[in-house]
Amino acid sequence: MNEAGKDKQAASVTRRGLMLVLSSPSGAGKTTLSRRLLQDDRDIDLSISVTTRKPRPGEIDGHDYRFVDAAKFAAMVKNDELLEYAEVFGNRYGTPREPVMASLKTGRDILFDIDWQGTQQLNEKAREDVASIFVLPPSIVELERRLRMRAQDDEDVIRKRMEKVGEELSHWAEYDYVILNDALDRAFAQVRTVLTAERLKRHRQPWISSFVRGLNK
Ligand code: ADP
Ligand code: 5GP
């Protein structure tokens, strides 16, 4: 192992993980991009949200979401178990606090697929730890096509989601980065680029100062 590697190993416990947030109007592709990132990168974990929404076909409890009823969700809010929470399309969604804190403490990064309300709450609580990306669809027509192609929501749900597109889009400027998800490979490469650059931020490499001191000896 080289000197930088040794310093990195010695200081690895003190590196705080970063919180990478992906938001977009429903159907723009953030779940697709998230899943790909999780497959591609072993140093980032997904924050698994709790929701009162019913599972879609193929969704697995504990993998995609923790599916809970309204009473359980309310109890989690009351007991301050959620780092952030919001109502989206008539259902409640929230981020369990404990797994996030555990990952951050051990220096692992965490990926969040949450809406603009949750992103605002994370920014208020931990701005230094957050890097946020807003994913844009190439057009509204394509967004609707993707929602239909996903074929997991009924017509009423798709209509409700399309009605909210304008409101969701209006929050794009609150994000650190904006990525157009036209060609998936290119959008994914851009997500990777953001993550790489955010990991290189000085305050996320606490071992660097001792390494540089060594260089100066
Ligand atoms: P979101 O999580 O933002 O609601 P999804 O990731 O579920 O969106 O994507 C919605 C649908 O669009 C899925 O069927 C997905 O396979 C498809 N999709 C995602 N990105 C692209 C892309 N760049 N080009 C074409 N289809 C895409
Ligand atoms: P879906 O029902 O399509 O899985 O998600 C609907 C919306 O809820 C998406 O915009 C998604 O990012 C958001 N969402 C999912 N989990 C959370 C969460 O824990 N908190 C917040 N604030 N939004 C969430």
Write up this protein.
Helices cover 46% and strands 19% of the residues. The protein is α/β, with parallel strands linked by helices and 217 residues long. It has one domain: Rossmann fold (3-Layer(aba) Sandwich), CATH 3.40.50. The strands form two sheets. The chain has a five-stranded parallel sheet, sandwiched between helices. Strands 4-3-6-5 form a four-stranded mixed sheet. Strand 5 and strand 6 (91-96) form a beta hairpin. The two termini are 20 Å apart. The model has no long low-confidence stretch (mean pLDDT 92). The structure holds adenosine-5'-diphosphate and guanosine-5'-monophosphate.
In short:
With 217 residues, the protein is α/β, with parallel strands linked by helices.
Features:
single chain; 217 residues; Rossmann fold; five-stranded parallel beta sheet; four-stranded mixed beta sheet; 10 helices; binds adenosine-5'-diphosphate; binds guanosine-5'-monophosphate
Annotate the secondary structure layout.
Blueprint: H1 3-11, E1 19-23, H2 30-40, E2 44-46, E3 50-51, E4 66-67, H3 70-78, E5 82-88, E6 91-96, H4 97-105, E7 109-113, H5 116-126, E8 130-136, H6 140-150, H7 155-163, H8 165-169, E9 177-180, H9 184-199, H10 208-216
Parallel strand pairs: 1-7, 1-8, 2-7, 3-4, 8-9
Antiparallel strand pairs: 3-6, 5-6
The structure holds adenosine-5'-diphosphate (ADP) and guanosine-5'-monophosphate (5GP).
